[in-house]
Amino acid sequence: MTPTRTTPLRREHHITHWDPEDTEAWEAGGKNVARRNLVWSIVAEHVGFSVWSVWSVMVLFMPTEVYGIDAAGKFFLVAVPTLVGSLLRIPYTAATARFGGRNWTIFSALVLLVPTIATLVLMANPGASYTTFLLVAALAGVGGGNFASSMTNINAFYPQRLKGWALGLNAGGGNIGVPVVQIIGLLVIATVGNTAPWIVCAVYLVFIAVAALGAALFMDNLDNQRADLRAMGTALRYRDSWIISFLYIGTFGSFIGFGFAFGQILQINFLAGGDTAAQAALHAAQIAFLGPLLGSLSRPLGGRLADKLGGGSITTWTFVGMSFAAGVLVVTGTIDDGRDGAASTGIMTAYVLGFIALFLLSGIGNGSVYKIIPQVFVEHSRRIPGATDDERAQWARSMSGALMGFAGAIGGLGGVGINMVLRASYAGEAASATMAFWVFLAFYLVSIAVTWTVYVRRRPRSPEVPAEPAPVPAAV
């Protein structure tokens, strides 16, 4: 597992027989290898998230009178890369096992050049059809797939006792790509106005090159990664896999959905208050990045708390908090709808605080839900008849990695749902988001009941086994 033990790190960045549960090897240098891979995994995933969410920034540069796209059309526009990125997470989950974590990270980083260049060209030459915008936005979805391959890869590097923290840090560092691209958008708007969105894309061409080069120089491939589509099929035979995926809709779906929509919601309110398009874009950008930033920073905290207190308990309380935050938005929206004219300062403050709380709590929930995954499959592995401890550990890692990709895909679809619900809400007679806030509140209440029933009230319990116990995969 280290250069001085029986599993040497060779010059071609390949490690054989990696065993993070070997405490002696871990302390002798294995943790340094894992940390190095974690750092560059975070960098690459961070850039992927930024490219994935670049259209949440581009819509701030698109006044309706110039681009001919109304608010409902913009919500659909940012939903398209969310959808594509979510679906790509399923094949991306298998990619690190098939091609190697280092190799796939290099490739997936370089692929980001395609949507970045396409967006740069399109935004520098306005006047294209709405269909063209949708197609280019869809290309940005490749950035969403990076999360699944990155999480699967880092899951294989870390021991069970440290997975919550490592996965939370990896995901949080990636998630922070959402506010960073928004901050860069803010700087562009503040310095040159809302007429040069291509500058944001130009900056990311440099970041993409740095991520790919860093992965090539400092990351490694593991020969014992076990996460492919067959493993995913096996993982989905367990009820826990579907429950965890549902819960991830409420946490990650909220994070990415609001991350894409928050700036536009603010911009709509500022325009209603009498701002010009440029003023509304600037004011929205000055606030919008705060939510995704806090949500990203809180994700490692969620993983750490789950390591100590249990993923089920932390996730339950997270949904309780999110229900209160959604309730604030419902009350605020109802009051706002009942008044004529622009939203008051108090109303705008309540909107911002409600969304900030949702971002912060969704980040904590992201970390705690992902902590449940390896814990669940360790429990299931104990019920496999005739397996050795090493086979059980290998099977648990394989199933965990596979489910991380599937849950990530389903969670991302929650982000699509949020933008579509907001689109329908603004397209209605009231032309407000209040109806959408009611939908979010109802979902969080259901999530409380599910989490408490399955992972708090009934724990500890013996994990269920499918009708025919899943065999230990020899080479999945």
TrEMBL record:
Family matches, as InterPro entries: MFS (IPR011701), MFS_trans_sf (IPR036259), NO3_transporter (IPR044772)
This protein's source sits in the domain of life called Bacteria
Alphabetically ordered keywords of this record: Membrane, Transmembrane, Transmembrane helix
A GO term, aspect molecular function:
nitrate transmembrane transporter activity
Gene3D superfamilies reported in the protein's UniProt record:
MFS general substrate transporter like domains
Q: Where does it live in the cell?
A: Membrane
The family database entries (CDD domains) matched by this protein are listed as: MFS_NRT2_like (cd17341)
Q: Which residues form a coiled coil?
A: none
Pfam families assigned to the protein according to its UniProt record, in alphabetical order: MFS_1
Query: Do you know which PANTHER family this protein is assigned to?
Result: HIGH-AFFINITY NITRATE TRANSPORTER 2.3
User: This chain belongs to which protein, by name?
Assistant: Nitrite extrusion protein
